[in-house]
Amino acid sequence: MPGLTSDLGETSDVPFSSEVGPVVYPLRHGLKPPIAARFSISWSRGNSLRVSGFQSEADDSEVVRGKVVEVKLGSGDGEIDHSQWRRIAYGSVSPFALLQSRKNSMVAVSKMSAVSSPYDAEWSDYVMEYSREIGFLLGGHKLSLSVGIVDTKTVLKKVEEPTCLKAAWELMVIFYADHKSQAWTPEQLVDWLADYDSLLSGTQPTVHSKLVNFQKELASLQAIEDDDNYWEAISSVLAVGWLDVAVKMLRLHGSYQLNQVGSREIENGLVEAVAVLISKMPRMRLELAPGKLGEYFGTKPDFIKAWEKWRGQISKLDCSAFWVQCDHRQTREGLKNLLQIMLGNANILSSVTCHWMELHVSYLLHIRPFTMGLENMKNLAQKCMQFKPVSCPHKLMTLLLGILGENTEVVLAECSRSFGPWMVVHAAELLAAGNTQAEILLHEERHNLGGISMEELHRLVYAQVLSSHALTWQIGPIYLASCTKQGMALLKILLYKQPMHHNQILLKNIEICRLYELHKVSSKMMKIAGVHHWKHGKKGSGVFWLQQARDEIRLSRIAQQLFDFVGKSISDESFKQWEGLIELLGSESRIAGGLEFLHKYRDFKRSLQQVHDGIATNRAQKAAESLILLMKNPSTPQRFWLPLLYDSLKLLNWQEHPLLNVSQTNLLLNKLQELSIGKAMPFFCLSLLPLNALSSSRLLLFEVVSFSFIVEKLCT
Questions:
Q1: Hey, which of 192, 222, 309, 328 has its CA 20 to 30 A from 181?
Q2: Which helix (H) or strand (E) holds 158?
């Protein structure tokens, strides 16, 4: 099982109990008792259950009979709300996608150049850039221990509480991503505890909680140096390396007051000497943050030289004769205690720290500043756990133990259990950065997982979480596309499950298909949308999406339906109703003569309308020519002949002169004769025209042919 070591005995890095008790979730339904034993439970979005409770029958009809609530499953502590989680989810997409793109490019280049591994210095820079972007996204202002505060009675600034997610991410960066600072890992761990020690206060006492409690009492103290809690607080913050806080608290000593400087000169000198020694403490690191005390050294020889000199100054002060002249007992004992802490007295360090992580940091700072490697740090951590055991370890402690134990499975399991799938997916990139063992573990294909790797499994799980919510499903494809085995198949399923009748969602789906070259999926979705719109009365939208999908079969069927409908009722109002759809369909769909005829008929109707509006004779002549072309065209169905002639009665009866010659008129008479014969046929389609339409057209044509014959004779 991922996350569990093979040995679950006393030597296990992570405490594990096989006895898992039932988890109880509160159900805040707001119903008044009695409540009936009728409940309906179903899955909701993500990892939530939808619970419907029904109240017992009551005489009062105004009483609420039931309630539907959602119960979120999981072990989250609620420090990050839903909107913040969505902001993190969307913000992490760009760094993740950029890193994947760079990884693919470097792997391709390494294959071409026969380089064994892409994890070189350039890749480390990419991973660090990725970790910084994610860290900035997680936010969570760190605990401020700055001394630049106007109020002398204030030790800690009131800032926004940090989050466990940011703290866990920083731990992963320190031990896995920041390879250039591995020589200063102990100092980084000291800074990490200074930033996030407040998070551990929820499960056990901490130096931070001790400092907060003392700050509450600070305003009521008259002689602060007489209070034992004052010296205990200074000892604790000095032990864990909060040098600026220790110096500031020392200078709250009563001997610094103007009315007491003269009478307590020796006492004040001792306090100031200890404060100066604290502020000059050597630190093996590249640089110090602004406002932080100490002297930093980037190389080990320089640090050792400064360390020995500084320790010599402490020993010299410890043996000074001025201690005998210090009359204030608490000051003398408190300052002596601080000197012993700086000299690395293990017993005092153990007594002034609250849990094993603080003791671990104090050892790294005051006793073993040259501790290097995870194995040595793990051994030191186990030793500190013996001195400072915890009954209920914080999830950050468990994560740190997994990291120090170099157990990738434990780290992944703890990230998944405590911080969710987002953390696992994005932290996996840090785990595999330069760690061959972790890379093999993450990328190895496993038969028990269906042939996919652990990395792909966690990405699929996270993509499923994103896809289950209406506000985050759009970024699920980014993670599915990075899964080489099953990602694309699940991406297709995700796209097909989206409601195609919403144009915005459909456009988003089409864009996703374009990005991942899923052209067949895009075409099928547009077909689904087109059929849906057509069936629900949105004819234009239906035709548009079917045209985008190039679905000639369905477009031909629609054209046939349209053709049949117009043929049954070819009145002006009916044609206007479908004219826009005919225009949208175009002349590309060709069935039984196609819609090409309808387009010609549309042009004829427009010319005919101009004739009815009193346009000049040349317009009427063009309309007559259009009529003859339609009647000659073999694609013009027989059921349209009579409506065409009936609509053209004004053309046939043109007052100025005949618009048709004898041969054209005979053509029209022949068409009428065929219609008369066709009435007896079973396939004859009766148009919605007056009963005398046929006879009226025939009589008028006879008049036209007679008049045209006379005109032609006169002209010859």
A1: 309
A2: none
The pLDDT tens digits for 521-578 are 989 999 998 888 888 888 778 888 888 888 878 877 776 676 666 555 445 555 555 5
Pairing of strands 35-43, 282-284: unpaired
CB 392 within 8 A of CB 204: yes
Q: Are 52 and 40 in contact (CB under 8 A)?
A: yes
Q: How does DSSP classify residue 176?
A: I
Tokens of 219: 């305003």
Which residue do the tokens 């089409």 mark? Answer: 510
Token pair 């020392």 is at which residue? 250
Domain spans of the chain, in order of start: 23-72, 81-142+153-161+407-497, 182-393, 551-715
Q: Is the dihedral of CA 665, 670, 671, 677 positive or negative?
A: positive
pLDDT band at 20 (very low <50, low <70, confident <90, very high): very low
Q: Give the 3-state DSSP-derived string for 484-552, with helices as H, strands as E and coil as C.
A: CCCHHHHHHHHHHCCCCCCHHHHHHHHHHHHHCCCHHHHHHHHHHHHHHHHHCCCHHHHHHHHHHCCCH
> SS3 for 375?
helix
Place of tokens 């402490």: 314
Q: In what order do the strands lie in the sheet with 35-43?
A: 35-43, 48-55, 66-72
CA distance 464 to 420: 13
What is the C-alpha separation between 236 and 220, in angstroms, rounded? 21
Q: Which residue has the tokens 């950029």?
A: 98
- Choose among 578, 506, 512: nearest CA to 546: 506
Q: Are 567 and 578 a contacting pair, CB within 8 Å? A: no
The CB-side HSE value for 81 (13 A sphere, CA atoms) comes to 1
| Average confidence (pLDDT) over 379-390 | 89
pLDDT of residue 170: 92
CB 549 within 8 A of CB 523: yes
User: How far is it between the farthest Cα atoms of the chain?
Assistant: 150
Please, are residues 524 and 516 in contact by the beta-carbon 8 Å criterion? no
Other beta carbons less than 10 A from residue 242's beta carbon: 27
Between 87 and 562, the more confident residue is 87
pLDDT of residue 90: 92
Measured at the CA of 681, the angle between CA 680 and CA 686, to 5 degrees, comes to 80
Type of residue at 504: Q
pTM of the model: 0.72
Answer for the pair 247, 225: CB distance below 8 angstroms, yes or no. Answer: no
Helix/strand/coil for 586: coil
Q: Of residues 171 and 216, which shows the higher confidence score?
A: 171
Alpha-carbon torsion (276, 282, 286, 289), positive or negative? negative
Sequence-distant contacts of 73-82: CB under 8 A, at least 24 apart: 73/25, 73/47, 73/48, 73/49, 74/47, 74/420, 75/417, 75/418, 76/420, 77/164, 79/161, 79/163, 79/164, 79/165, 80/163, 80/165
Distance (Å, whole) CA 635 – CA 519 = 36
